[in-house]
C-alpha cells in the first residue's frame, strides 16, 4: 500500500470543521488511499488511532470529532446502539447519510492496520424506502378492493331480505288496521318498519359508494403494465438474486382493462412467485413473464417460477379466500385476483411448470373484443 505514516493522522483535523486540504497520506507521497473512489481510512490495529485517510474521508467524517479514533468513530456511528457487533450499514449522525462500512487488513512499515472503506449508500436506502411506501400504497389499494368487494356482497345480500321485512311489516300493519287490532302492536310494527327502512337506506348508500368506485376499463398496453410491476419488484428480485426473463410477444394487442386492477393482479402473482423461490438454490431462481395471444384469441399472461410448486391438496384450495401456507400470509391475494380477472371476463389459472415450479396465469379480452 501507499507510504502512509503516523504523521498523516495529523492531516485530518480533530475539530468539527471540514478540512480544506486532503487529509491524506504523508505530503508528497503517492497515496493509494486517494485512488480509492470512496471514503477510506487506515487505523492502527494496536491503539485504534487514525493513521491516514483520503480526502473523501475528510469530507464525509471530519465533522465528527470521533473520526480520529476507530472505536470512538464506530460508537458514534452506531449512534448509541448497545449492540457491540461490528456495524456494517450505519447512518452518520452529523450528515444523516447512510454508509456501508467494509474493513480490510493491511500492514505498513511493520504496523498492522485496519482499512476502513465507507461507501455512501443513501440513494439505495432512499430507493428502498420509496419502494416500500409504493408497495404499502398498493397493499392499501388491495385492502380497499377487498373491503369494497365485501361491502358490495353484503349490500347485495342484505338488500332483498330487508325489502321483504318492510313488505311483511306493511302487510301486518294493514291487517291490524282492518281488524282494529291492538294499538300497542301497531306502534311496535311501525317502529320496526322505520328501523328496517333506515337499514335499507344505509345499504343503498353503501351500494352507491361501491358503484362510484367502479373500475374504469380502457385500452391498456401489457408491456407497460408489466414494466410498472417489475420495476416495483426490481429491488426485491435483486436482493434475492433472481433472474427475470420477460417474454412478451411484440405483437400483443392492447387489452380492455382497468390498469390499476390488472397491475394489482400481476404484482400479486409475481410477488408470490418471488416468495416461492426463497428456499431454492440461487442458480435455479428464475422468473419468467410470458405474454401471447392464445388459441381463443385472448391475451394470456403467464408468471412462471421455479419455486416449490403446489401439492394437489393445495391446488384444490388455492383460490379459496384465506387459504395460505405463509406465517404472515392473509390468503386473500389470489381470491381477489380471481374476482378482478373474472370481472374483466377473463380466467385466472394455475398449472405446474414443466421442469419444476408453478405457472400462474390469466386471460384478458383484447381491446377490440372487449370494447365491442
Ligand atoms: P398469501 O400470499 O397471503 O398466502 P395468496 O392468496 O396470494 O395469499 O396465496 C395463497 C397461497 O397460495 C400461498 O400461501 C401459497 O401457499 C400458494 N401460492 C401462491 N402462489 C404460489 C407460487 N407461485 N408457488 C407456490 N405456492 C403459491
Look at the structure and give the CATH class of the largest domain. Alpha Beta
* Sequence stretches where pLDDT stays below 50 over 5 or more residues: 1-30
CATH topology of the largest domain: Heat Shock Protein 90
List ligands, each type once. Answer: adenosine-5'-diphosphate
Region (Disordered): 1-24
InterPro entries: HATPase_C_sf (IPR036890), HATPase_dom (IPR003594), His_kinase_dom (IPR005467), HisK_dim/P_dom (IPR003661), HisK_dim/P_sf (IPR036097), Sig_transdc_His_kin-like_C (IPR004358)
Protein name: histidine kinase
Enzyme class: transferase
Verbal overview:
The protein is an alpha+beta fold. It folds into three domains: 6-120, Beta-Lactamase; 127-213, Signal transduction histidine kinase, dimerisation/phosphotransfer (DHp) domain (Helix Hairpins, Orthogonal Bundle), CATH 1.10.287.130; 217-372, Histidine kinase-like ATPase, C-terminal domain (Heat Shock Protein 90). The chain is 44% helix and 19% strand. The strands form three sheets. It has a five-stranded antiparallel beta sheet. A five-stranded mixed beta sheet has the order 7-9-10-12-11. A hairpin with a 5-residue loop joins strand 9 and strand 10. Helix 4 runs antiparallel to helix 5, helix 6 (222-239) runs parallel beside helix 7 and helix 7 (259-276) packs antiparallel against helix 9 (333-343). It is elongated and about 115 Å long. The termini are far apart. The relative contact order is 0.07. Bound molecules: adenosine-5'-diphosphate. The site of adenosine-5'-diphosphate has 21 residues, from helix 7, helix 9 and strand 12. Residues 268, 272-273, 276, 305, 307-308, 310, 318, 323-326, 329-334, 358, 360 line the site of adenosine-5'-diphosphate (ADP).
